[in-house]
Each structure stands twice: as structure tokens, then as C-alpha cells.
Amino acid sequence: MISVEGLGYRFRGSVEHALRAVDLAVEPGEFLVITGPSGCGKSTLALALGGHLWRQHDGEGHGSVTVAGMDTRTAPLYDVAEAVGLVQQNPEAGFCTLTVRDEVAFGLENRCLPRDEIAQRLAWALDVVGASHLEDRALATLSGGEKQKVAVAAILAGRPQVLILDEPTSNLDPPATADLFQVIARIRARAGMTVLVIEHKVDYLLPFQPRLVAMDRGTIVYDGPFGPDLLPPALEPCPPPPVQAAGEPLLRVRGLAAGHGGRPVLRDVSLDVHPGEFLAIMGDNGSGKTTFLQSVLGLIKPLHGHVEVMGHDTRQTPVSTLARDVGLIFQYPDHQIFCDTVWQEATFAATNLGLLDGRVEGRVAGLLARCGLEDRHHEHPYRLSYGQKRRLNLVSVLS
Predict the structure, then answer these.
(1) Any idea of the CA torsion for 207, 208, 210, 215, to the nearest 10 degrees?
(2) pLDDT digits 0-9 by tens, 33-61
(3) Who's near 253: CB < 8 A, 6+ residues apart?
(4) What are phi and psi of 52, to 5 degrees?
(5) What are the structural domains, with CATH classification, of the chain?
(6) What one-character DSSP code corresponds to residue 123?
(7) What is the pLDDT of residues 322-347, one digit of tens each?
(8) pTM, two decimal places
(9) Can you tell me the distance from the alpha carbon of 119 to that of 348, in angstroms, rounded to the nearest whole number?
(10) CB 313 within 8 A of CB 307
């Protein structure tokens, strides 16, 4: 089904190769998990298998990639896309319409399938990912996890021979992560589909006994069975040191109701956060976690109640003022990249606030080094992997 021989690729402007001498053979119906550190070439390999790498990027490549009997480098992309379904890390990157129903039906309509078959496939795909209740929703109103489910459903509806999912659970909560992998296993068993999952959360996949492929620095370093002995050792939980809340709260929320389009997602939320506290906000996809953070920074105004940040009422304070004291990192790193080089991006916030000086530059250089980006200062941020972009967002906010 899949044959990769001697595959190498280097993006234009990059010193290091993203892929180096990759050899991979996958039989029909196999279930593969591809894992490895951020920036090791997993997503680049997925783009090569789907035929996108050669057409969307200006770089140097060699070797061969054959999927379902087609050379993905030379075969028409529409033929490759019919055989290979690729769900990318950022679900919004693949959206072409405005509503869930239209998005899942979009590819089927482009194939000119009969209307009844489109309706049947649409209902089936939404059902298997647990998103039937979202059919009438606008994509812009969905949470990150809900968008991920719709992206998977849109690909499943096309019933490809090979399904590639690039970190499909990066925006899903733990129950939804487990559910999605159960769905993938059922689809593979029912349709005989070849499945490749690029994932860091490999422990969720152990019960399905997939074949494991581990990558590092652009090449495959392990290819074989996946057993418990390959999981990292469990760590004993370390209780945090007691923190005594002191002083006035930095964040004060009272009776907050907030949402989009006049529809409340949050209702009667009250909360105090004191200096030095470390909070984890958890909940199901669509429960209002992102809406709460947007309310804190004043990106959306409360429908009822009020939010006070360091003494500032978010209803009456410009976002630019709040942003000096509150850093926010979005779910999708591409939404927070504005510059042409990693260094410019890392210093973007400090530059905009008029705070960039030698001391700040030294701190930024140290942060980039701690995030493993010390050798990438002059590269374009879009050359980074998804995980590396997330780290770059963090450096920019902390600068």
C-alpha cells in the first residue's frame, strides 16, 4: 500500500534536512503510529505521503514515495487525494466552507456523488466521530476540539484507502482522545483502511497493538512492534509545595456570563486568582475554557457580571493596556505568528510595547535556547514544526 525508499527533503532556506534516508513499507490494512520529538520530520513525511510536499513547498528532495500504486510526486493530486486522506494538525487549515454540514459534504460534492449518497456518508462520518449534534453549527462557533472532530469526519466521508492523522488529539480532552482512537480502530476494522497516526500520546494507542515507527532528526530510528516496555517510565506524583494566597487578587471574576453571538457559554462564573498561584482550567471540549480566557484579556466583553485584572475592569480598559500584564497563547500557533524570522517573532511583543533593549534581547536569546530554537533565529517561523511554533509563541509572550 505504501512504499518509501531513500526519501530525503530539505526546505528552501534551511540548513538541516527535514527528512534523511527514510525507508518505509506499509501493507494494506496496517495500523501505524509514528512518533518522535517536535521537528523530527513526522509532518513532513505525512505531506510527502499525501502528495502535498512536492507541490506546496519549494525545496530539494530525492527518493521515491508510492501510495496505492501512485507516485505521489508525479500523479495528479486529485487522484492521490482520493486514495489518501490527510487530517492536518490545525483543522482550520483544511476548512473550505462555513458550516459543519457543508464542510463534511464539500469533498463529496466535488466528486459529483449522488445527493442521497452524500447525505448518507455525511451522517455516517459525523456519527462515528461523535459529532452528529454539530451538523447545523457554524464552524466559527466550534471549540478547538469540535473543529478537530469535524476535520476528521470530512476526510472519513471520502472513504480513502489510507487515512493519515497528524496529531488528531492535540486539541481534544482525555475522554475525547480515547473515544477518537476507539473510532479509528473501528473504522480500520470495518473498512479495512490503512491508518497512520502521528501522535505523542502513544500510551492511548497501546491497547490497539499498532506497529510503532519512531523518528528523530529526520530519519526512522525504530520500526517494530509496540509494547509496554517502550512506554516511558511512570513518574511518582510530586505534591506541590503549599502556597499561601496573599494580598489582593490579580484576577477577580464575579457572576460572569460570556459567549459569542449573544449565546452564553459561561454562566455565573466567580473566581479569585492570587499572586503566585498556578491554575489548571479543565473541562470538556466546548465547555467554555477558551471563552473564559478571552474574557480575562478583554477580547470579548461579558454579557453579565464583571472581570477585573490587576485592578482594571475589562469592560472599560483597552486590550492593549491589559496585554502589557496578561500574556495569552492561542490554541493554534499560526494565529499568533506575524514576522518573517524566528528572532523577529520572539521579540515582536517587546518591540510593539517599546520595551526592546539589550537586557530583553539577552532574555529572549536565553528563552529560545531553553526551547531548543537557538539555531533557528534566521528561519521563517512557518518552517518550524507545530510544537516548535508553540514554543516560539511562548517565548514571544514571555519576552
Answers:
(1) -60
(2) 999 988 899 999 999 999 999 887 678 89
(3) 269, 270, 271, 272, 295, 296, 305, 306, 307, 308
(4) -85, -30
(5) 2-230 (3.40.50.300), 248-328 (3.40.50.300), 332-399 (no CATH)
(6) H
(7) 888 888 888 888 888 999 999 999 99
(8) 0.73
(9) 47
(10) yes
